[in-house]
Amino acid sequence: MTLSVWAWPPGRASAQPAEPPEAPASLAAPPTTPPAPAYATLVERDAPPPLAQRKGQVCEEFWMRLPNVTWALCEAAQLRPGEGRSARGRPIYVRDVQPSAEQRLRVLVIGGIHGDEMSSASVPLHWIQFAQAEPEQGILWRFIPALNPDGLFDRPSRRVNANGVDLNRNFPTPNWEHDATHYWTVRTRKDPRRYPGPEPLSEPESRYLFEEMQRFRPHLIVSIHAPYGVLDFDGPQEPPRKLGRLSLNQLGVFPGSLGHYAGVHKGMPVVTVELVSAELTPRNVEIRRMWDDLHQWMGITLAQADATEDVPPRLRR
């Protein structure tokens, strides 16, 4: 019941850096600033700047498109362009939250894999504030609120990316060439919303996340979706039973999905949060409750880490 490090493919062990990875220069911690406003202040009233001042700002599209995101909340997230770009060349924004205590864990939080699940991109912006308020936890957080910015900011928003590919069917799971095509053709009857792409990692967004997982080497991935209203889990560890009002209901694995690739194939735990609505977020108190439950599960899991510290990840159960 431990959180394993990235399970590198055979022959790649020597590529693992001895020390925890450093954030890219573009993601380095911002200069010291006055204390951030309290979370309640950021979410209670929306006061965006005049239109002329909003034009071209990072938060303009996030604020206009996402539910339950005030201008102040988005600005406080301090999103910065990461190393990835979308199919249309949009930056994929990232935020690192560094721990003040000794780093024990690296956690990657991903939203907006499907562009029409707007609430999944909103929740990470709230969680960034909670992470900033708890640096003593010893967790390095990396947030990617909108992996699919083209789909998210299209009008109307689309599940797929600009090339018409479902990014959550584009990861290199075993037998992808047969299984992904067969599933799409037979099970979905060639539903264009679930097209897996011409080959695994054919899309810049999925390639970026694949490479980011190898750079960052997260112990845990939290992937936020909607609107099934359940908690899913893939990986060798004991799953969390609930996050807020969401209860565990493991939905199975799909060819090319992130959960299948990272959780099942690589042995890295993936918590998939399926929010109830794609267009509305939970209430703020519920967003906080989900965060607290995630922390509690992580704490219980980490408490037993020492007993199996030297056990290879694939052997941990």
Brief synopsis:
The chain has 317 residues and is an alpha/beta fold. The protein has helices spanning 39-44, 51-54, 59-65, 71-77, 118-132, 149-153, 176-187, 204-216, 258-265, 284-303; strands at 80-85, 91-97, 105-110, 139-144, 220-225, 230-234, 242-243, 246-247, 270-274.
Give the helices and strands, then pairings.
Blueprint lengths: L38 H6 L6 H4 L4 H7 L5 H7 L2 E6 L5 E7 L7 E6 L7 H15 L6 E6 L4 H5 L22 H12 L16 H13 L3 E6 L4 E5 L7 E2 L2 E2 L10 H8 L4 E5 L9 H20 L14
Parallel strand pairs: 3-4, 3-5, 5-9
Antiparallel strand pairs: 1-2, 2-4, 6-9, 7-8
Helix pairs in contact: 4-5, 5-10
What does this structure look like?
31% of the residues lie in helices and 14% in strands. By secondary structure, it is an alpha/beta fold. The chain has a seven-stranded mixed β-sheet. A two-stranded antiparallel sheet has the order 7-8. Strand 3, helix 5 and strand 4 form a beta-alpha-beta unit. Helix 4 crosses helix 5 and helix 5 crosses helix 10. The longest helix is centred in the C-terminal third of the chain and has 20 residues. The radius of gyration is 19 Å and the shape is globular. The N and C termini lie close together (6 Å).
